[in-house]
Amino acid sequence: MTFDNPLLFFFCALGVFNGFLVSFYFLFFGKQKRIQNFFFGMLVLMLSLRIGKSVYIIFTAVEDRELLIPQLGLSACFLIGISLFYYLKSSVINAKLALRSWKIHFAILFFIVLLVGITLPYETNRAFWNTYFVHFIYIVWGVYLVLSGYVLRHIFKKLVSKTQKCTTAELWLVAVFIGNVLIFSAYMVGYFYLYLVGTITFSVVFYGLLFFFLFKKNRDTIFQDIPEKYGAKKIDTTEAQHLIEQLNTLMIEKELYKKTDIKLQNVAKNIHISTHKLSQLLNDNLGKSFASFINDHRIEEAKRLLMSNDHFTLEAIGFEAGFSSKSSFYATFKKVVGMTPSEFQKQLSKA
User: Fold this and answer.
1) CB of 339 closer than 8 Å to CB of 347
2) pLDDT tens-digit readout, 221-231
3) Residue-averaged pLDDT of the chain
4) Region at 273 (left for phi over 0; alpha for psi -120 to 50; beta for the rest)
5) Which ranges constitute the DSSP H helices of 78-167?
6) 219 secondary structure, DSSP code
7) 20 to 30 A from 51, CA-CA: which of 106, 164, 189, 270?
8) Positive or negative, the Cα torsion across 181, 12, 212, 19?
9) Are 58 and 3 in contact, with CB atoms under 8 Å apart?
């Protein structure tokens, strides 16, 4: 079914056009190069491509349609859910850069839809796309919507709490999530009844979010990090395990503990998280302060040197392991190992 209502076309097309402008701004021209803003740009771009495809189908006669456009629109739809998920997740945890697992996850979905597009192009396999693959696309989108809702669970609790108040940035995340739920629901309705409802809903949601942004106090915080007091919530177990693996790999490969002036922010920068989050990780998940964590690695290095380099003096081993003085080396070694370095060395010679 095609429509020829110029006002309806203008309303729908303007929403798509502005969506492209917003996505290009966040992807290429925004001053703040945050990973959150990148994912937001990807989300708006994928939505704009999907809605643009719908506008094209609705307002173009069947015989005039270029079949590459439906394929691009459906392919973009496949990536809407994951873009939303990582936008919300990166915002909630104040991520500084995308984790390697995120990139792999995104790349897998991208290559799935790319492979399908190359091996089974829409032009010659319309029945496959419209009957089978489109169902898979919407299932994937729906799954990520559910996961996105789970990411916002703590903010939802604050919304209904009488003692806690959500920040403007948190309310924005909820509004973006609800907007995506509405668009998804509209396409579910449109799939069975009126296809046009999805494109109209996108424009309504787009301008609704725009008005939210323009008329909300503290709107400058929307595309900045959520305050650290929210980040103080316990780190997710899976994420904590991943960060601990990164941290241990960093210690082994770069041997940062050997630097006598090593600081918390130096290590945090290397694994792309805030100093607050690294401190939280060490305290909550490893039960250690930053100093004790570094000293543990220094002691392990000192023990290795004591076992393999009997021609080194004890003082030299302490400095090589990263201690700034002989006294700090001796005191820390005895505290951690239960004996002095010389006693440890004597025990080795008896073995």
Assistant:
1) yes
2) 676 655 554 44
3) 84
4) beta
5) 80-92, 100-119, 126-128, 134-151, 153-160
6) G
7) 106
8) positive
9) yes
Whether 173 contacts 92, CB under 8 Å:
yes
Residues whose CB is less than 8 angstroms from the CB of residue 104 and which lie 6 or more positions away in sequence, other chains included: none
Structure tokens at 246: 């990164």
Name the token pair of 297.
Answer: 């690695």
Sequence letter at residue 204: V
Instruction: Quote the tokens at residue 311.
Output: 């021609």
Distances (CA, A) of 104 to 108, 139, 141, 250: 6, 20, 18, 20
Residues 274, 94 contacting (CB under 8 angstroms): yes
- Given the structure tokens 């025990």, which residue do they identify? 347
CA 142 and chain centroid, separation: 18
Tokens of 303: 């023990």
pLDDT at 2 over 60: no
Nearest to 267 by CA among 295, 246, 284: 246
Backbone phi, then psi, for 271, in 5-degree steps?
-110, 15
Question: What pTM, to 2 d.p., does this model score?
Answer: 0.62
Q: Which residues contact 59 (CB under 8 A, 6 or more apart)?
A: 2, 3, 4, 9, 12
Token readout for 185 is 């629901």
Say which residue the tokens 């009488």 belong to: 162
